[in-house]
């Protein structure tokens, strides 16, 4: 509940920032067109995002006869979470990672790389699947789409302000500069904050769903360590927020990472494990 309120607050800030900038510019047609275009683009992305992303990573749907271990874990976690069975995909990559996509629990898909099946044991894989299905249950795809809508709209407002603005902005070059540079940066930072909030929530909810927070912590360590040595051979950094661990964390991506610091995620999971009966659950290796 607390993370949902924080997410709603930052989404409201994004919307308010967009309205304030539009008002400062005089509500010109360029801003209106930019917002409308961003909204249409993100609506298309929302309804087609699963197909677009799965095709980008050459993911192939797999059945229970092909991957009985994986399907068994996904089915068990989905049942525990009260979710419909999602479609299951394999990404032909040795870099261990996973992501969920789809606009709702009824249209969800879980994709894992071939590498994660080789490197994680059953408890760790269950922790990862529980994390991803928590994203599905919390409808984080919808949240990310709304954040992306306003962030994209802010960038377009800044672009339109650069080429066509009313006399107020021309008389105030400092204000115009703040909009051109600050608006898209603010949108990016708030989008990053929203994503980080949702990652913490998925860690917490996923650990509760699987009942094995230490196994999820161990999985995060393994995925992070291996990702540094085995980068993804396909894909795009714009998809970073989808993955359980950012596979593109380098250079500016590290500065503007959509994921919380790994050690903080692990620390919170370890604290969660101490509160469970017996003081521990899952493997810590």
Folded structure, characterized:
There is one protein chain. The protein has 285 residues and is mainly α. It is 65% helix and 6% strand. It contains eleven helices and four strands, in the order ααβαβββαααααααα. It has a four-stranded mixed sheet, with helices on both faces. A hairpin with a 7-residue loop joins strand 3 (98-101) and strand 4 (109-113). The radius of gyration is 20 Å and the shape is globular.
Give the topology, please:
Layout: H1 2-24, H2 29-56, E1 60-61, H3 68-80, E2 87-91, E3 98-101, E4 109-113, H4 114-119, H5 122-137, H6 140-163, H7 167-170, H8 173-210, H9 213-229, H10 252-255, H11 262-274
Parallel strand pairs: 2-4
Antiparallel strand pairs: 1-2, 3-4
Helix pairs in contact: 1-6, 1-8, 2-6, 3-5, 5-8, 5-9, 6-8, 8-11, 9-11
How much of the sequence lies in strands comes to 5-15%
Q: Secondary-structure element sequence? A: HHEHEEEHHHHHHHH
pLDDT under 50 segments (min length 5)?
165-171
Helices, by number, come to 11
What's the helical proportion of residues? 55-70%
First-to-last CA distance? 31 Å
Keyword list:
285 residues, mainly alpha, single chain, globular, 4-stranded mixed beta sheet
Quick overview:
By secondary structure, this protein is mainly alpha-helical. It is built from eleven helices and four strands, in the order ααβαβββαααααααα.
